[in-house]
Structures are given as C-alpha cells and as structure tokens.
Design brief:
With 295 residues, the chain is an alpha/beta fold. The protein has one domain (2-286): Thiamin diphosphate (ThDP)-binding fold, Pyr/PP domains (Rossmann fold). It is built from ten helices and seven strands. It has helices at residues 2-19, 25-41, 65-75, 115-129, 149-158, 179-182, 188-194, 207-219, 253-273, 280-286; strands at 56-59, 135-140, 164-170, 173-174, 177-178, 198-203, 225-230. The chain has a five-stranded parallel β-sheet, sandwiched between helices. Strands 4-5 form a two-stranded antiparallel ribbon. The chain is globular. Bound molecules: magnesium ion.
C-alpha cells in the first residue's frame, strides 16, 4: 500500500507539472487514504466499472483528481499513460472528477459541498434496493464550510445510513489559509456526534490505523460513520508541506525537479521496506506500470 501511494504521489506531481495546472496540495494529503480504499477496502471490478453491486467513492473535494486518477489507473480502470492527458482540452482527464469521461469515477464533483449529498443518495438507494454495497465520500476540511454538507449529514443520520462512510481530510488548510482562521470548524467530532454520526479520529497517513478505522466503520450499525483524518497538505514534498500556497498551484521546472527527487527517494525507501528490488530505474519503471497488487 505504501509503495503504491508513493508511486501515486509521483504520478500526481508529473500530471500537475505537465499540465502546469492542478491541485497538488490536497491531493498529496488524500493520496494514502484513496490508495487504501481502492486497493484494500472497496469492492470494485475495473473490468466492470459500473457494476451495480460495487462499492462507490465520491470525491466530494472534486478538485483533487491528481490523487484519484493515478490510483484508478494503477488499479486497472484505464492505462497509466492516459494520465498524461490531464487537463488537456483534447483529452478526457478533466481537472475535476468527471464520471462520464473517466472510467471508475462514480460521481462528477468539483462544486464544493455537493458530493456528500450524492453519496447520501447512493447509500439511500442501496438500502432501498436491498444491496450490500458501501459508499465512501471524501470531503475537504475547507469544503465542509459550504454547500449542503450539514443538510446531508442530518439526512444520513435520519435514514440510519450505516452503509455510508464519510472521510474528512483534515489537513488544516484551505485555499486562502488555515481553516482555523478562514472559518473555524472544530470541534468536528462534537459537531458530527451531535448529528448522530459515529466519529473516528485517525491518522490519514497511517495505513494500519486506516485499515482499523475502515473496519470499525463497516462494523458500526444504524448510523453513518465519519473518519476525521489528520493529514499534512502537500505530504511528501518538503517545501509544499503545510503551505496553503500549494493548494492549486503547479510547480515550475526547478520546483518540480526538487519535488520529483524527494518523492522518488520516498518511493525507493518504501520499496526497500517492502523488500522490493530498488534502483532509480526500477522505481521509475514501477511508476508507469499497472500494479493490481497494491504493495
Ligand atoms: Mg483542507
């Protein structure tokens, strides 16, 4: 899992740099969780992306496609090479999540504060249809300031949607600065508890903790669960970490070279820990090969 997420970070950086556009900061904070979902938690079939019995994922923070698309590609929904079409007018790799253009995307998102409502609808439909699929929705901690997030939260509890798991990417930053300054949202646990949700605080970069949290969410009955995942915006790149300036900015060539070097070293370190053969060549080759194992 750690190797796959590290490869995802490299691919995300390549996409945003090549496009000279895109949201890298919040994608790097979300990468470990999305990797965990698609390679370990969710029931999906890349050969049948619209399988009615599949688990669903809604990227409510829909601008963070540089986290979602590399993971979908490495999971086998489409060739990794297609990522090079990110944000190109003649390509399908849209800047915001687009269900009609990108295989594996379950909901078009990008208008903040809306995706969670679609997830509530999917969960409600699953209950009505007697299906056992689960629905996951990822929100930004800046995103929850707007839209219909709390209306959706109220409805999810009313309808006892225990097949719904929301994940808030609590990186503490949003486009204009710290969430605590722009629009304070804490204590998030008490807010969700008061809406009758099951609340789990978790380290969003700790795969073992995430595995346990997702299992606890699936085991919770009669109410929806929210994971409040503490993360680092820009995770993995020293000069991007905890800097809101990298919310929606692409690195220039010099910055890209530094970021790429740091992420490559991170990937190689994780490959070594996983007992894989390590060299710069094998690390970069892994970066473009499909890997359904999710090491
Ligand atoms: Mg944030």
């Amino acid at each position: 899992m750690a190797v796959t997420a590290a490869r995802g970070r490299l691919l995300a950086m390549d996409m945003v740099h090549a496009a000279a556009s895109g949201h890298i900061g919040g994608s790097l904070s979300a990468m470990d969780m999305i990797t965990m979902l698609y390679f370990h938690v969710m029931r999906v079939d890349p050969a049948n992306p619209r399988d009615p019995d599949r688990d669903r994922f809604v990227l409510s923070k829909g601008h963070c496609t540089p986290a979602l698309y590399p993971i979908l590609a490495m999971r086998g929904f489409f060739p990794v090479e297609e990522l090079s079409m990110f944000r190109r007018i003649d390509g399908n790799m849209s800047g915001h999540a687009e269900m009609n253009l990108v295989k594996g995307v379950d909901m078009s998102t990008g208008s903040l504060g809306q995706g969670i409502s679609a997830a509530v609808g999917m969960a409600l439909a699953g209950k009505g249809d007697g299906k056992d699929y689960r629905v996951y929705a990822m929100l930004g901690d800046g995103e929850i300031e707007e839209g219909q997030v709390w209306e959706a939260a109220m409805a999810a509890a009313k309808y006892h949607l225990d097949n719904l798991c929301a994940i808030v990417d609590v990186n503490g930053l949003q486009i204009d600065g710290a969430t605590a300054d722009v629009m304070p949202s804490e204590p998030l646990d008490k807010k969700f508890e008061s809406f009758n949700w099951n609340v789990i605080r978790v380290d969003g970069h700790d795969f073992n903790a995430l595995e346990a949290a997702f299992a606890a969410a699936a085991a919770c009955k009669d109410k929806p669960t929210v994971l409040l995942a503490k993360t680092v915006k820009g995770k993995g790149v020293s000069f991007m970490e905890n800097d809101y300036g990298w919310h929606g900015k692409a690195p220039n060539d010099e910055q890209y070279a530094v970021a790429h070097g740091e992420l490559l070293r991170g990937l190689m370190g994780r490959m070594e820990q996983a007992g894989l053969p390590v060299s710069e060549q094998t690390a970069l080759a892994y970066g473009v090969l499909s890997d359904k194992e999710g090491v």
